[in-house]
Amino acid sequence: MTAIFSHFEHDHHEQIVFCSDAQTGLKAIIAIHDTCLGPALGGCRIYPYCDEKEALQDVLRLSRAMTYKASLANLDLGGGKSVIIADPLREKSPALLKAFGQAVERLAGRYIVAEDVGSSVEDMEMIHEVTGHVAGLSSGGGDPSPATARGVLMGMKAALKYQRGQGSLKGVTVALQGLGHVGFALAEMLATEGASLKVSDVRSDVLTEAKERWGAEIVENKAIHAVSADIFAPCALGAILNDQTLPALKASAIVGSANNQLARPEHGDMLHKAGKLYAPDYAVNAGGLINVAHELPDYGGYNAEKAYQKIDALYETMLAIFHKADHEHISTAKAADLCALERLNHQKTISHALSAAE
Ligand SMILES: NC(=O)c1ccc[n+]([C@@H]2O[C@H](COP(=O)([O-])OP(=O)(O)OC[C@H]3O[C@@H](n4cnc5c(N)ncnc54)[C@H](O)[C@@H]3O)[C@@H](O)[C@H]2O)c1
After folding, report:
1. 82 three-state secondary structure
2. Same-domain check for residues 209 and 90
3. How confident is the model over 271-290, as pLDDT tens digits?
4. Helix, coil or strand: residue 70
């Protein structure tokens, strides 16, 4: 049996639910890390994990990051995530999604599901047939990727402001890895702002399109982190900042959407010592979460203008993290953690005081 409480990714998670359904073959895990700021909102990842251990590790780590992300983004939401162990191309079916939706419904609003890797707006519509605890619907914010890209753009402007005193992207070179949902939207925004692009992906069709559309320079995927650029934007894989890539990094700032960019926490300190400005992933990629959160009843119904105002405020959040790191002589990764914990701990103190007074 896989140990839970002693698991290295277990961080006092409030609730971990193992969901199964014999008829549809559903095998899913919903992890609720912390609900002190509000109900746990997080995506449903549908992925053919090698085994249950791997799925558990992923959901524990991802749900914890959602707590920090929501706290830093100043949302009244907690952190949660879910995984369905299945190949989204072969095994995803309406029945499977509805069986999962019923598991979400049983949690009575403690967990709100949205899109993630392997799941789509259409899947959320399907889940919505059996539970109301869904965000990222076409009637609301829909696909969170453009909103995530917008937040990353704001993070880049904040990095330039911090480093150079002005946040314009005109004439700035960005090395972008991964032209998927977020990366493609981001590249479009960067080209509009007058930035030059160097791009890599494993799909040749998007590379050709990037060359034709924006005059982007195509770079071999293994070398994208090492090309000369002002900003490196990882928008594909996790663990891209590691022992091998760090010494070769040319860009002075790293600002991208990919989750879990640091292979190990120490890589945050290594970047700090090397004088590289790292925009902590869960802070700078919060645009999508902010957008879907605005669909919830507490926000009074989806309003794109209000949502994007809050996404643009990531500029200030990122600047605050950079300055905190500077003043306290710590890495930006540590500064982001401290900012997120500050709000969480403040709320926990209030909650404890209130329950003691009852
Ligand atoms: N979509 C969102 O709103 C959102 C929000 C927060 C974080 N993220 C994170 O941002 C990253 C990108 O998300 P997405 O939704 O654009 O995913 P996606 O799957 O649409 O895009 C990923 C892109 O990376 C490319 N890719 C895959 N392996 C690669 C490799 N080895 N080298 C270079 N390119 C490679 C793929 O071909 C694809 O074009 C992921 O890490 C995701 O977890 C996304």
Report:
1. strand
2. no
3. 999 999 999 999 999 999 99
4. helix
